[in-house]
Prior knowledge:
The chain is an alpha+beta fold. The protein has one domain (about 20-115): SH3 type barrels, CATH 2.30.30. Helix content is about 15%, strand content about 30%. A five-stranded antiparallel sheet has the order 4-3-2-1-5.
Amino acid sequence: MAINVSQAMAATLAGATARVETQVAPRFRPGDRVRMRNLNPPSHTRLPRYIKGKVGVIERDHGVFVYPDTHAARQGEKPQHVYVVRFSAAELWGPQGGANDELLVDVWDDYMDPAS
């Protein structure tokens, strides 16, 4: 079901959220090292290109949310955890990345695997 701009604005102002109250076991805990998958689907994804294949560290678990990739394709909600992942600037941009700079990115569970 498509909605128009005014319906989207009303839902946002009413506090609509993609958080779901479903029990899903977390795959990761704060401090875990994770590697982002290198996914290239034909449709839109919430996995930023600049973190694909990169290694980061779980900072925090936001809880369980609807997975936007399957939801947008009308393939169901596929509830899963969304984590805050910390990346060093050097991991993302090589020597040009500041030695003390980091980036925090919210990442769905399906976009990552344990780093070896």
